Amino acid sequence: MAAQKKQQIAVVGAGIIGICCALNLQRAGFAVTLYDDKGLAQGCSKGNAGHFATEQVFPLAHSSLLKKLPGMLFNPLGPLRIDWRYLIQALPWFWLFTKNMRNKIYKTNTLALKALNESAIIAYDNLLNEFNLGHLLTKKGSLLTFEVTPLNQINTIYNNFLDQGIAVELLSAEEVKVLEPNLSEKITYALLFKDVAHSVDPHLFCLNLAAQFSALGGNFCQQKITSVKQTGKIFTLGNNEQTFTADKVVIAAGAWSKPLIVPFGYKVPLDTERGYHCMLASNYGLTRPVASAERSFIMTPMSQGLRIAGTVEFAGTEREMNNKRALALLPNAKAMLKNAAPPLQPSSIWMGCRPSLPDSLPVIGEAPYHPNLFFAFGHQHLGLTQGAITSELITSLCLKRPTKIDLKPYCISRF
């Protein structure tokens, strides 16, 4: 009897989500082709902060943000910027964002984020150890520092994390100095998140996983996918010049996912939070990611030096990067470091488009009305963190097996 033909799966989008999905699906016995016209991990998966931020279980839509918004928006180099030419287009997203601030919804979304994050590192351990790549995760925890926040407010933040089961420790200035001697003396307290990890090279991290995908027989096709159609049980996808077929399709195209699913009749309020980084040639003695609660940015030591990352900018996917947004990170980094020698001169600057939804939850699951069409996008600031667990969930769905997490909170039908 002839061997049964493997089912063909097309994964659209070769960021960390798409790469992890492609690798796990290939491991599961499918014949997988990964599509991306820009190459492997050329977007946010290349330029992110390298922080596997499992402690970030709280949605961004919180009522306390409302009183901070005016100060953020009127500071041209502050942590949030809306390009006024993009404002009308962004208003529906912000309206839904404010609706998600309601206490009951906020608590529900927190539980959904927590469900993904508490399995995130375990999922990566399972995936990386399969290929003897465990060394790619650096497990030294991370710090959230405070300079002027009163201790009673810090205790509230600390207890909120404890209430969610996050492994966290409140450190004094002296304890911070022991862990990271080159941090500023102005830091009064810090929270040490003990179970998080980081990557010293997020791009190389992705490329290593993609190499395993190829070694298992997976195929990467550097083609732009502009349309996906379903005729009977077969999908046709491609562009004006070339078409491909597949038995199943996974849409993991990040901020560019929306145009691919609209023709199927699905509505999703997906927008992009443009994030920036500066790369410095030295890591300035830091050994773990260090974030600032008041300055809203993060510094991560990497093999190439220190990556300073952060800021949120709403300006769509097409406008050129605003170099000032990247360079505005430098004064914050200088203030956070005790010894900024050599002087903080960026070796490179970068901008990437985070795919964000108003409730801070991704879309993960099978399309409600189109069998064998799967969604894995919208992971906002947590794409790197949730890559492996998302791939486990998508693989279970493709194998028609129960998922380890209830996927109802992430279903596209919530919109």
TrEMBL record:
Residues 9-396 form the FAD dependent oxidoreductase domain. InterPro entries: FAD-dep_OxRdtase, FAD/NAD-bd_sf. It comes from the Bacteria. The keyword Chloroplast does not apply. The keyword NAD does not apply. It holds the Pfam family DAO. Keywords: Oxidoreductase. Signal peptide: none annotated. This is D-amino-acid dehydrogenase. The gene is dadA.
